[in-house]
């Protein structure tokens, strides 16, 4: 079965390489040298920020267990991280809009570096403080950087379509290549050099410090709503009114929460799904395979976003349906393939089928990120971008906290079924979003037809 892992990894690598090498002029967006310089600067910073995040991920649970904490105590630490992201994330998002996105990005670096430093202490209270800081940093990572990019892109007068190029490249590098390299580098530090489970956190702090130096030396400040008379409560109210009054924003928030909630739940479920009888599986290699599948998705997204058709609102319906079907595989294999009673050993036939399904889901994740970023840049108002984006994360964090708290209460098939339903609902909401976004075009075409009976429908 070990050959199976290499075959899947090799096949995905070959497809990604073929997609990237086969791009022609129609699949590429013609840009300016000034934009390329701006884009490359952002990609370097974003990759460093993501390296700081990816290096920590595989070793958080392991580090806590080496300090002697049990599953319950570790679960509380994880809940503290998501809870702090929910409670403080919206506040720091609003401050980013008012005090400056560049300043918020620097705050992310400082906060996450402090969180890394706390990992040197085996004291539970200090580790809890580190989780709270990590939760705040996560909120900033997924709102402040994107908000700064969109505002700066528009301020410099670059073509709106070029944003999709930056988004797809950021996901391809930051959520794909950097994730794989971070996993390998972390493994090198812990296993090959025997530096202990704290070493990846120290390396992460170094990458974050380098990224912060680049931000301070090359980024300019931009703001959302700079009105002096607006306090945090007024900003929250304004963001809530924007979500409630614009169905497109509300739908976008619901779609994001449903997909990301399923994605974070999948992170907790894939290991027990692939090794229900304690089968020996190469976690690091499977993680790298998932990231390669995500790179495949982002490569596909860059092609799709380079063309005016199909629209992002259109193809994302298919992506959500495919992702929903892929997470049904554990349920299907549970019914169709007789479960093995043998403890240990290598991955089972059912596990192999599920691994292929999980790679399909990760490819959908790779398409999702640049596509949702594109839609957010279209629909979310600039003056409250960070605030609204963190509002979207509130239901997500509540959902993940509930799942973490009850992870042992339900069978794994029930959890996957729930995620599959959420993703199917996301596809229905995406269809509604597409219908609403097309209304102005239909109305414009109807008015044009009244003036000119031979008029053709308007295209992007």
From TrEMBL:
Pfam families xref list? MFS_5 (PF05631)
Q: How does it sit in the membrane?
A: Multi-pass membrane protein
Q: Which InterPro entries match?
A: MFS_trans_sf, MOT2/MFSD5
- Which spans are transmembrane here? 6-22, 43-62, 74-96, 128-150, 170-189, 201-219, 285-306, 318-338, 344-369, 390-406, 412-429
Q: What is one term from the GO cellular component aspect held by the record?
A: plasma membrane
Q: Which GO terms describe its molecular function?
A: molybdate ion transmembrane transporter activity
**Keywords associated with the record:** Cell membrane, Ion transport, Membrane, Transmembrane, Transmembrane helix, Transport
Q: Does the keyword Signal apply?
A: no
Q: Where in the cell is it found?
A: Cell membrane
Q: Which domain of life is it from?
A: Eukaryota
Q: What does this protein do?
A: Mediates high-affinity intracellular uptake of the rare oligo-element molybdenum.
Can you name this protein? Molybdate-anion transporter
Q: Which organism is it from?
A: Corchorus olitorius
């Amino acid at each position: 079965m070990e050959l199976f892992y290499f075959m899947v990894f090799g096949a995905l690598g070959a497809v990604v390489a073929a997609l990237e090498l086969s791009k022609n002029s129609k699949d590429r967006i013609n840009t300016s040298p000034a934009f390329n310089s701006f884009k490359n600067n952002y990609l370097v910073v974003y990759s460093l920020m993501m390296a700081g995040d990816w290096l920590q991920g595989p070793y958080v649970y392991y580090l806590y267990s080496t300090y002697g904490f049990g599953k319950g105590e570790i679960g509380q630490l994880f809940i503290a991280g998501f809870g702090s992201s929910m409670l403080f994330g919206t506040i720091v998002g609003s401050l980013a809009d008012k005090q400056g996105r560049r300043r918020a990005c620097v705050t992310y670096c400082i906060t996450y570096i402090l969180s890394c430093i706390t990992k040197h202490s085996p004291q539970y209270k200090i580790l809890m403080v580190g989780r709270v800081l990590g939760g705040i940093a996560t909120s900033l990572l997924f709102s402040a950087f994107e908000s700064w990019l969109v505002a700066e892109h528009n301020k410099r007068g670059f073509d709106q379509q070029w944003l999709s190029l930056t988004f797809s490249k950021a996901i391809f590098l930051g959520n794909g290549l950097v994730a794989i390299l971070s996993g390998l580098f972390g493994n090198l530090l812990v296993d090959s050099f025997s530096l202990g489970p704290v070493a990846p956190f120290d390396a992460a702090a170094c990458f974050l410090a380098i990224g912060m130096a680049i931000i301070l030396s090359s980024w300019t400040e931009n703001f959302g709503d700079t009105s002096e008379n607006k306090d945090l409560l007024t900003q929250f109210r304004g963001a809530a009114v924007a979500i409630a009054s614009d169905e497109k924003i509300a739908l976008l928030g619901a779609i994001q929460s449903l997909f990301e909630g399923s994605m974070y739940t999948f992170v907790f479920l894939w290991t027990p799904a692939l090794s229900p009888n304690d089968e020996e599986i190469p976690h690091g290699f499977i993680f790298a395979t998932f990231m390669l599948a995500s790179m495949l998705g982002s490569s596909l997204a860059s092609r799709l976003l380079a063309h005016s058709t199909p629209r992002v609102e259109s193809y994302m319906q298919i992506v959500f349906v495919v992702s929903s079907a892929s997470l049904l595989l554990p349920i299907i294999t549970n019914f169709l393939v007789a479960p093995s009673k043998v403890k240990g050993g290598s991955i089972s036939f059912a596990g192999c089928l599920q691994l292929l399904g999980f790679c399909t889901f990760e490819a959908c994740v790779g398409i999702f990120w640049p596509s949702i970023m594109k839609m957010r840049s279209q629909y979310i108002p600039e003056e409250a971008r960070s605030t609204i984006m963190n509002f979207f994360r509130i239901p997500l964090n509540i959902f993940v906290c509930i799942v973490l708290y009850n992870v042992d209460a339900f069978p794994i098939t029930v959890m996957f079924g729930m995620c599959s339903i959420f993703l199917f609902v996301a596809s229905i909401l995406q269809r509604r979003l597409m219908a609403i976004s097309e209304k102005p075009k239909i109305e414009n075409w109807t008015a044009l037809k009244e003036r000119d009976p031979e008029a053709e429908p308007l295209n992007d």
